[in-house]
Amino acid sequence: MSTASSLCSSTQINGFGGGLGVLRTHVSQPKTLSFTRRRISTVVKATSRVDKFSKSDIIVSPSILSANFAKLGEQVKAVEVAGCDWIHVDVMDGRFVPNITIGPLVVDALRPVTDLPLDVHL
């Protein structure tokens, strides 16, 4: 049996008189994945702060979008003291969405306030 056939299974559902047919293919995920290129094996180790937080099953990452921006530093510190893992930052620049919220200047200003990873996305 080939490796590809051991990873796939198919289910076929037939309707009235065989006129309706739906074919579903299920592909299971491989247990391990390795790459070797011309006798050169590459091992990648993540050593960032995000990697150590990614090891747990649940990551608590509250968004600062609902924070009081006049007291943003205090509220980020309160979230850190409460035991949250990351700080979630919703950047809206008026280009992809019509709203404008936090931009790069605010994200830069948050870095000295906390050592938690900043989970930033557009």
From TrEMBL:
GO molecular function: metal ion binding; racemase and epimerase activity, acting on carbohydrates and derivatives
InterPro entries in the record: Aldolase_TIM, Ribul_P_3_epim-like, RibuloseP-bd_barrel
SUPFAM superfamilies for this protein: Ribulose-phoshate binding barrel
Keywords: Isomerase, Metal-binding
A Gene Ontology BP annotation from the UniProt entry: carbohydrate metabolic process
Protein name: Ribulose-phosphate 3-epimerase
Biological source species: Gossypium laxum
